[in-house]
């Protein structure tokens, strides 16, 4: 047994705010690399020397809050990722770079064993503590020889009972073992909607819990747009066509202010990474298994919501219909109230070249705090991370709303009337990547405070030093 006292500085820096202080992001955690709660120093030393753990190769990609924990995913895109799912406390802690505790256990994260988690990209957790885990199955996708021995699976895990409830391996024609890339998901009662970022068979995979069945809906708007595939995050250029990734679920629609009838069909929002468009599709289409036949058009059911000023990865919607998303090429976080016009009322909340580097995922805790994981993915895809500098940040802001997973019985949602609902949108982007709107000439009425961006340097370093505390921990 040994004791160690480590001084830890708690930073509480504010991230650059572009518009006048409605939503203020603060940096709540920051890491140079992901490290884990190793069972012993011997196990840790062995993992390092055997290459089971290579810190430069571990990226944090997904984040979901539940019951005072942040659950995070570390997809096995490269070798040296000892656990692909883990967690750490969401309570104001003593460390700004907490160790990740493999979840639910080290054994359940063993690489090479198809009966346990292999490559988790994202998870979602319902209010009852059912965790929906997307395990892509194949690993080492960024290496020359990807390993494709295990099927793509959806695993439902009961956090409170600490047990697996269900494992659903997808059929080859839904999410193939060799080509699928299950990316992100939303839960809609009995149904789960999952984006498949597959290079040659992208779409939305639908899972029905009641029937333990799955199918895939394909549409041209779910594929990346070659004219929007090139963009830059700081100095790093991304130039590869990337299909559907981010997905968000709109609130239940109350059909009229007087009627009590609530339409169970909701709107699913999605965007390919290589696209400037936000699209939506009615869950009525997704829930109908016969929609999966052929490449159907769904006129009036797929909508082109409008253009953004840059590409996005993860997106999230609140139970009051407000969408939050990152603008990757613009180092910024934006929001849109979906009862208003997308073209006219997108707002950039924060822009910061240091802290906002690839907003991969968003989560909302039960206290109404939005948390964003910014993870420098643009560097990770080009080589090992430079672990002498910060690579991952959690940025939080109080938004006073809950996640889409929480019904608000008093909330009346009347969606924005879309202009063209009778024609099927074409997935072509009229704005080419070289002509992305700049700050000053961005999409109509994006609320950007030019002064804020001019003073960026000053604001970026406005770190507020809170204090030095001593973190003492016992280790057996
Ligand atoms: C990683 O965490 C373990 C404790 O689990 C610790 O012993 C080790 O020193 C850490 N490694 C680094 C490089 O911080
Ligand atoms: C949520 O708010 C409660 C009451 O203010 C507080 O005790 C709890 O720590 C908060 N949870 C998080 C994750 O911040
Ligand atoms: C959950 O179960 C696993 C064994 O399957 C165990 O290793 C782990 O400690 C348990 N977690 C909790 C929080 O009890
Ligand atoms: C659900 O479907 C999968 C097939 O993907 C099957 O392996 C599993 O046994 C099914 N579970 C139940 C409870 O029927
Ligand atoms: C996707 O591409 C791979 C190889 O490039 C090929 O083997 C596979 O059949 C393709 N899948 C589909 C659904 O087109
Ligand atoms: C499902 O889709 C098929 C084919 O488009 C259609 O004929 C059928 O009416 C739909 N079912 C429901 C319940 O909407
Ligand atoms: C969204 O916009 C509507 C209509 O302008 C407004 O009534 C509502 O309060 C807004 N919602 C939020 C969460 O700001």
Could you please describe the fold and organization of this structure?
The chain has helices at 41-50, 283-287, 342-345, 377-380, 450-454, 456-460; strands at residues 2-13, 26-31, 62-66, 69-73, 85-89, 101-102, 120-125, 130-135, 153-158, 163-169, 182-188, 191-196, 203-208, 213-217, 230-233, 236-239, 244-249, 253-254, 262-263, 267-272, 277-282, 302-307, 315-317, 322-327, 332-337, 347-351, 359-364, 369-374, 392-398, 463-475. Helices cover 7% and strands 36% of the residues. It is mostly beta strands and 476 residues long. The protein has a single domain (2-475), classed as TolB, C-terminal domain (Neuraminidase), CATH 2.120.10.30. The longest helix has 10 residues, at 41-50. It has a 4-stranded antiparallel β-sheet with strand order 2-29-28-27, with no helix packed on it. Strands 3-4-5-6 form a 4-stranded antiparallel β-sheet, with no helix packed on it. Strands 7-8-9-10 form a 4-stranded antiparallel β-sheet, with no helix packed on it. It is globular. 45% of the residues are buried. Bound molecules: 2-acetamido-2-deoxy-beta-D-glucopyranose (7 copies).
Describe how the helices and strands are arranged.
Elements (H helix, E strand, L loop, with lengths): L1 E12 L12 E6 L9 H10 L11 E5 L2 E5 L11 E5 L11 E2 L17 E6 L4 E6 L17 E6 L4 E7 L12 E7 L2 E6 L6 E6 L4 E5 L12 E4 L2 E4 L4 E6 L3 E2 L7 E2 L3 E6 L4 E6 H5 L14 E6 L7 E3 L4 E6 L4 E6 L4 H4 L1 E5 L7 E6 L4 E6 L2 H4 L11 E7 L51 H5 L1 H5 L2 E13 L1
Antiparallel strand pairs: 1-30, 2-29, 3-4, 4-5, 5-6, 7-8, 8-9, 9-10, 11-12, 12-13, 13-14, 15-16, 17-20, 18-19, 20-21, 21-22, 23-24, 24-25, 25-26, 27-28, 28-29
